[in-house]
């Protein structure tokens, strides 16, 4: 994987050298942004600053928790696996939505007698 990163950087350097005379400011800005984005891997935020902290790399696409927006590795990405603070709120909101829906669909005895 590291070889691919170096090859990508070499290709970017070559492309930027070709275009340098025409679009200097744009290229330098893009190259700087690319280097910043490639600089450090994000780490799993499971139990940060504790003895049980996870040091695995966070997943890029599916590693962000939909509820708390923190980044996690494959083992801790699910809300149930990292003791997500927002999980109980989410469960309560889903319960309330379901309760309202079921109450709206409830059949009343008086409606059945007229049918």
From TrEMBL:
InterPro entries: AN1-like_Znf, Znf_AN1. Gene3D superfamilies: AN1-like Zinc finger. Pfam families: zf-AN1. Residues 54-89 form the AN1-type domain. It comes from the Eukaryota. The keyword ATP-binding does not apply. Keywords: Metal-binding, Zinc, Zinc-finger. GO terms for molecular function: zinc ion binding. This is Syntaxin-like protein. It comes from Mycena sanguinolenta.
